[in-house]
Design a protein that fits this description.
Elements lengths: L1 H14 L6 H11 L3 H20 L14 H13 L4 H29 L6 H14 L3 H7 L14 H12 L6 H14 L1 H22 L2 H5 L5 H13 L5 H26 L8 H16 L13 H14 L6 E3 L5 E6 L14 E5 L24 E3 L4 E7 L18 E7 L3 E8 L11 E2 L4 E4 L11 E6 L8 E2 L2 E7 L2 E6 L6 E4 L4 H6 L7 E8 L2 E12 L5 E4 L3 E8 L2 E9 L2 H9 L2 E3 L7 E6 L8 H10 L8 E9 L2 E8 L6 E7 L5 E6 L2 E10 L3
Parallel strand pairs: 1-12
Antiparallel strand pairs: 2-3, 2-14, 3-10, 4-9, 5-6, 5-8, 6-7, 7-10, 10-11, 12-13, 12-14, 15-16, 15-26, 16-17, 17-18, 18-19, 19-20, 21-22, 22-23, 23-24, 24-25, 25-26
Helix pairs in contact: 1-2, 2-9, 3-4, 3-5, 4-5, 4-6, 5-6, 8-9, 9-10, 10-12, 10-13, 12-13, 12-14, 13-14
């Protein structure tokens, strides 16, 4: 327990640099020892906040990171920069730390709920400013607490443009010394090349703009407040936005605009005798994030990992693996149908109704009817069953409109006979152009996915029998459509788990295979044992144990790492890894997903993160340069059924020479029996064990 508390306190230090790891925090804490006053007061503030959190019963929330305690830490560091260690100073710092924690918790709750914005270091700016102002009234503190700062001589031997960078880095921890800044620069380089790059770009872009405005490069490079430029560049270029060339441009523009605020702040706060702290960083970063969020900027980070490189790798992998949306629908029919019109189609799927699909049935010649097509019964789709694409409650039914003769349309009743279903996930699905009198469900009725709704007709604005499908935000018939995607279908011999078929594609819904579902359903505490071979030589024996995370997600635990997996919408997924285990990475490479459906030679495609294939300098270089060109980091996995229980695949990557060949054989009872990936081979060595 004590070890966990120490890790949490140390994470408060690393959070200041947008890095959440206790080891990094330990290094940063060691740097504060250069100035014992800063070190002790910072520690007093963060400990006071942590004790207050425990007293209020919130300690469990802080065992994972230092998110709520890095602001109190910064307040303590700022007070330590001004006042020497004394019982009176420690009392004031402890009170300020507790107040900062309370304000942090309050501001986070308000900002995350109403603005969906981080609070950054606003609580620190607010409380530190108040503490500095209040200290002017504490005569006892001013007499006994103020002290002179010692400065090293190393900066005398460095050019001002370089010493200015180092002192600005050190100023982040209220130690504007080149030794501290140099150590932090090295730390950034070791932890994240992207943050290292952004720190340099942010500082020099802001300082150059400042030099042009004030007419003095020397004065610009000696201003320690330019740490704001470093923070802005790192926050916008690598943390809250996905690292990319566009994000870097936004970061530089934000830094340039912040010079106006920084200089105005220096003039204003100077009259009160206090520094402006990180106010420019907070205001500019939050303003840009808010505008980007309102305008729907696509590169806002939805998941922030330990480093910008990890965030970028996760983003690229997820966007390539899961192309669809969270509004997922199954195909509303059985058998093979053709996409007649897709989203943003050339006829009726425009404007507010652009997100929709129309389906017809075609023959080998591409015709939708037999004979001359003069009669509705000549059309292959007419009278075919329409199935519920989701589970939900029926909120709207129209069933009395007459079917149009082929080539004619009812302009007065665009949607024709229809069914509207409310999905529990918060949206409505409309299916239109049913055959008159064929709908077999009623308003208020609950239906499961795949239930019969009615039969395909030609009512409404429909020149030929077809099924119209769209998602909308309200239950009102014909409401504006929302983006959605289709799950669990095949097209041209390829399986799609969650995607949007193209116009003209022939699609067919799959029915999950019960045997495959059983084989890939794992029980808690079940173990899978494998002998690991490389080039035919026994290398290792591994055991993977099935565990469950706090959110209900299952994972394979090897003791070194975790590989999360699950079944969703007709597909078995190996989602992602935590920690580092080479064998789990190889498993994910060999079979990142598997449809719960077998058809001879059925193929599918997926992607894997670079961490599953690369390690060390090569992965570091790929991730750094892929921020400028995302396609540089792309690992594709193509798989196909080669036999009822066997899958063959190929792994290709832009950073890989020859493709890697994979082969996976399923165990008839459960799990995997045999895996091959190039010269690596895994053989199931013992039966599974299940604790009942």
């Amino acid at each position: 327990m004590i070890r966990q508390h120490l890790k949490t306190v140390l994470c408060s230090y690393s959070e200041i640099c947008f890095l959440n790891h206790w080891g990094i925090g330990l290094v940063l804490f060691a740097l504060t020892l250069v100035n014992p006053n800063v070190c002790v007061n910072g520690l007093v503030a963060v400990l006071a906040a942590y004790v207050a959190a425990q007293f209020l019963g919130l300690d469990k929330a802080f065992l994972a990171s230092g998110f709520y305690t890095y602001n109190p830490l910064m307040v303590g560091l700022s007070m330590g920069y001004l006042f020497r260690i004394s019982p009176l100073t420690c009392l004031i710092v402890a009170l300020a730390g507790i107040l900062t924690f309370v304000v942090t918790h309050m501001m986070h709750s308000i900002s995350s709920y109403y603005l969906r914005l981080p609070i950054l270091s606003l609580p620190f700016v607010l409380i530190s400013s108040l503490a500095y102002l209040a200290s002017a009234r504490y005569s006892n503190l001013l007499v006994n607490g103020l002290y002179e700062h010692a400065f090293g001589n190393l900066e005398l031997y460095l050019p001002v443009w370089f010493s200015g960078l180092l002192k600005s880095l050190g100023a982040i921890f209220f130690m504007p010394r080149v030794e501290v800044g140099l150590a932090m620069l090295v730390l950034f380089f070791l932890c994240s090349r992207i943050l290292f790059f952004l720190a340099i770009v942010g500082y020099y872009s802001g300082s150059l703009v400042t030099a042009l405005l004030i007419g003095s490069f020397h004065q610009a490079f000696t201003n320690a407040n330019h740490f704001n430029f470093i923070w802005i560049a790192m926050a916008l270029g690598g943390i809250f936005l996905i690292p990319s060339l566009k994000s870097y441009v936004i970061a530089v523009v934000a830094v340039a605009t912040s010079t106006l605020l920084l200089h105005a702040m220096e003039v204003f706060w100077a009259s009160y005798g206090i520094p402006g702290f990180a106010l420019p960083f907070n205001l500019v970063t939050l303003a840009f994030l808010y505008v980007l969020g309102v305008t729907g900027f696509p590169l806002i980070s939805q998941v922030i990992k330990a480093t910008p490189e990890a965030t970028l790798d996760h983003y690229l992998t997820v966007t390539r693996r899961f192309k669809g949306t969270w509004r997922t629908l199954s195909l509303p029919f059985a058998g093979a149908w053709t996409v007649w019109q897709g989203p943003n189609g050339q006829w009726t799927h425009q404007g507010a109704w652009q997100h929709a699909f129309d389906f017809v049935i075609t023959d080998e010649q591409g015709h939708t009817f037999k004979d001359e097509g003069h009669n509705l019964t000549d059309y292959y789709a007419f009278g075919k069953p329409i199935l519920a694409p989701i589970r939900g409650r029926i909120t709207g039914v129209t069933n009395t409109l007459t079917d149009n003769p082929p080539g004619h349309a009812d302009k007065a009743n665009n949607w024709g006979n229809l069914v509207v279903i409310q999905d529990p996930r918060g949206f409505w699905v409309e299916l239109s152009h049913f055959k008159k009198g064929s709908i077999v469900v009623a308003e208020g009725q609950w239906v499961e996915k795949g239930a019969l709704l009615g039969h395909c007709g030609n009512s409404g604005y429909s020149p030929q029998p077809h099924i119209h499908l769209h998602v909308q935000a309200t239950e009102t018939v014909g409401s504006a459509t929302l983006p959605f995607s289709l799950v669990g279908f095949t097209s041209d011999g390829q399986y799609f788990a969650n995607d949007l078929p193209a116009e003209g594609a022939v699609v067919e819904a799959i029915v999950p295979n019960k045997t495959l579902t059983r084989q890939l359903t794992f029980l808690l505490d079940q173990t899978l044992n494998f002998d690991v071979f490389r080039s035919g030589q026994l290398l290792d024996t591994v055991t993977w144990t099935v565990k469950m995370a706090w959110d209900g997600t299952f994972y394979f635990d090897s003791g070194k790492g975790r590989l999360y997996f699950g079944i969703h919408e007709c597909t078995f997924y190996l989602y992602h890894t935590e920690g580092y285990d080479r064998y789990l990475n190889l498993l994910q490479l060999a079979l990142p997903r598997l449809p719960l459906y077998y058809a001879p030679s059925l193929r599918w495609e997926d992607h894997a993160p670079s961490s599953a294939l690369q390690r060390g300098f090569k992965q570091t270089a790929i991730l750094f340069f892929s921020a400028f060109y995302h396609k540089l980091n792309c690992i594709s996995v193509t798989c196909a059924w080669s036999a009822p229980q066997q899958i063959c695949g190929t792994v290709t990557a832009s950073c890989l020479g020859a493709p890697m060949c994979t082969q996976v054989e399923l165990d008839p009872e459960n799990g995997f029996k045999h895996l091959v990936l190039d010269d690596w081979e895994f053989k199931r060595s013992a039966p599974q064990e299940v604790n009942s």
